[in-house]
Design goal:
This protein has one domain (16-25, 35-105): Beta Barrel (Thrombin, subunit H), CATH 2.40.10.370. It has one helix and six strands, in the order ββαββββ. The protein has one helix spanning 49-56, and strands at 18-28, 31-46, 62-68, 79-82, 85-94, 99-105. Strands 1-2-3-6-5-4 form a six-stranded antiparallel barrel. A hairpin with a 2-residue loop joins β4 (79-82) and β5.
Length: 107
Amino acid sequence: MARKRSAISGFRPGLLRHQITLQDRTSGMNGETWSTGTAYWGRIEPLRGQALILAQAQPSQVGYQITFRDSVPVAAGQRAVHDSVNYLVESVQVTPDRMKVALARVG
């Protein structure tokens, strides 16, 4: 049986198997903290090949990317958490059928 693909660019939503929580930076009396937001399904993976080479040419520590559907409200400066690992959102690229988020691992 063949796998079903989305009508848009062959995108397969079944690959979005990681639950990723987005957090916002907040400042208060206790200093800077992160407020937990909503969890979304996405795919997190290390950069490879040409994408890794291009990322290494930049001054940031980008080494991972998340793929979400295009309806996730994510912005640079937020933190993404998956399996107790924190990633800083460096940039967001939106295409008609998906959203790619460049990440730097922070702990």
